[in-house]
Amino acid sequence: MAGELSFDLALEPWLPVRFTDGRSGSVGLAEALTRAHEISGLDIEFPTQEPPILRLLLACCYRAFGGPADDTAWRKLWEAPVLPTEVIEAYFERWADRFDLFDSEAPFFQSPGLGAVGGGGPKTANKLISYAPSGNNVPLFTPVTDATGLALSAAEAGRWLVERHAWGTTSDKTGAEGNPKVKAGKDAPQVGHVGWIGFVAPIGPTLRETLLLNLVPWSRTGFIRGGSEDLPAWERPPLGPMHETRPPEGVCDLYTWQGRRIRLCPEMRADEVVVTGVVICAGDSVDREAARGVDPHTGWRRITQGSIDYSPLRARTGQQVWRGLSALLALSEGENRAAVLSWVAALEARGVQSVSLLVTSTKFGNMSTTIEDLLSDRLDTPVAVLRTEDLEAATLAGYAVHFADAAARALGFVSDASFVKHNDETDRYEVPEGKRIQASASRNGLAEELYSALDAPYRHFLMELGSSELRAMAIASWAATVTAAARAVARRRLAELPASQAFAGASCELRFERALRKAREDFNPLPEEKGVA
User: How far apart are CA 373 and CA 315, in angstroms?
Assistant: First the structure.
């Protein structure tokens, strides 16, 4: 580590943000908090960076504010137009020596002097970046090659450093020198905690509101665990090559979890500090069961799998986030929603009427060595849908998705028109055995076409559920929208059929209409006097 190099994450601009006046810029941690009321949100380059950076800022808030300890302390923060500037500046001044990215003794989020077993030197900075190829890890559609040898600015390296601790895959197998757990030069890391959970966080119109919406008071022990003894990584001694599996002591500990042992290798190029190399090894593993009582940003589903009794509720990748809303709201038996959603629901009395839910979910590839698919979406949601004591709005939101699913299944009959043959024995048009795989793929494609057409209408429908007076009208409008969209998709597919399939098309269209009509009749989620006619 080059001791003369320095980059102070508290003061240097490294967090890309959007200001409320439309400008873009970069700020340090201290400025992000003191000007949070002027910032509309983070302007992150890659979606996996936003959750851990948000949690990093939250950890700073908890420690700088000494809480909030209870609802009264939280209310004072909420009612103030800005976050307490003097308190924030005093906190970063107190810990100034622990936010330097290249400090020789305690580099931020790193292990000083970390080396690889066998004297192996640092890997290229590519190893730090999710989409960059490194060795056998070659993601699809990457804009760089393994031989590129990226040189990251200090700001870029800082963002990817925070991301890697939270999202690291099991490909980080390099054994750390001095760690007796290393076997044959390799180690066995745990998948990063944020990558493992299904992350959801409320986002407000400004960064100040976003932080406070997620800053659950310590007194809400049913939602989080925290307190004066809950320390973030920079308030602890620097970690060496050893690692362990342990329970998180609280949210600050978990939000700044050192899931890897990392050492950045900087150098000067044209009067600028850049990072050209990195050593990444296994870090601490989160006790999964213990995390359930600490992490407010994920829901849980009861399971029976070895020693684990719960698994995180994750939105399914490869689809619009609203299609998995029932799971997000934990409407099924044996599910518990993310505690932060229940906390936000309780803020309706404070004038919080709606939030945007930031949702991320990951599908890992073979042996969890790569990220195969990633969902990152935002869903504007009225707080009424998040209520736990009155589930009408949430239930209606779920029923609306079920109706869309039923319409998508009905379109399967239209899709089959391209493949069916007449069966003389049954006097029906049926898909031959040899065409069923193609027919299944075609049905999925037609369903996705419908879901794409319904994406914007559903988001509008969801916001209308915030008003009890508008719900009957919203349900009727949604029923008409789904029906019309499904028929439009069906007409386009049927129009593409060759003349030889005309009779088959007519038969399949009739079955589609029957199925769609049945789904429409079943979709009557409100009481009869308020229901859909």
Answer: 12
The pair of structure tokens assigned to 201 is 């966080």
Type of residue found at 407:
A
Neighbours of 37 (CB within 10 A): 14
Instruction: Measure the CA–CA gap between 361 and 373, rounded to whole angstroms.
Output: 8
CA distances from 525 to 218, 388, 457, 529 (A): 38, 18, 18, 11
CA distances in angstroms from 158 to 6, 85, 137, 435, listed in the order given: 12, 24, 22, 52
Peptide bond into 13 cis (omega under 30): no
Cα dihedral value 459, 463, 468, 469, nearest 10: -90
- CA distance linking residue 109 with residue 3, whole number of Å: 16
DSSP, residue by residue, 272-290:
EEEEEEEEEEE-PEE-HHH
**CA 193, 194, 200, 206 torsion: positive or negative?**
positive
Q: Within 10 A of 203 (CB to CB), how many other CB atoms are there?
A: 22
Task: Report residue 470 as tokens.
Answer: 């508008």
Distance CA 160, CA 87 (A): 28
Measured in whole angstroms, how far is the alpha carbon of residue 31 from the centre of its chain? 25
Strands (E), 69-209: 123-124, 152-153, 199-203
Is the pLDDT at 134 greater than 70? The verdict is no
Taking the C-alpha atoms of residue 336 and residue 388, their distance in angstroms, rounded to an integer, is 11
Q: What was the pLDDT predicted at 515?
A: 97
Instruction: Please say whether the beta carbons of 15 and 28 come within 8 A.
Output: yes
Cα angle, residue 98 at apex, residues 239 and 76 outer, rounded to 5°:
115
Contact of 286 with 276, CB cutoff 8 Å? no
Residue 147, Cβ density class (10 Å: 0-12 exposed, 13-18 middle, ≥19 buried): exposed
> The tokens 């690291």 sit on which residue?
168
Kindly report the three-state secondary structure assignment for every residue of 315-377: CCCCCCHHHHHHHHCCCCCCEECCHHHHHHHHHHHHCCCEEEEEEEEEEECHHHCCEEEEEEE
Task: Give residue 530's pLDDT band: very low, low, confident or very high (50, 70, 90).
Answer: very low
Domains and CATH numbers, the chain: 15-386 (no CATH), 392-522 (1.10.132.100)
Token pair, residue 243, equals 């690692």
Token duo for residue 278: 């990195």
Sheet holding 199-203, edge to edge: 199-203, 354-364, 371-382
Residues in the chain: 533
Residue 332, pLDDT score: 87
* pLDDT higher than 70, residue 532: no
Strands (E), 179-248: 199-203, 245-246
What does DSSP assign to residue 185? T
Please enumerate, as own/partner, the contacts of 495-502 that have beta carbons within 8 Å and a separation of 24 or more. Answer: 497/417, 497/418, 501/417, 501/418
Structure tokens at 61: 């808030």
What is the reported pTM?
Answer: 0.92
Map tokens 């936000």 to a residue. Answer: 344
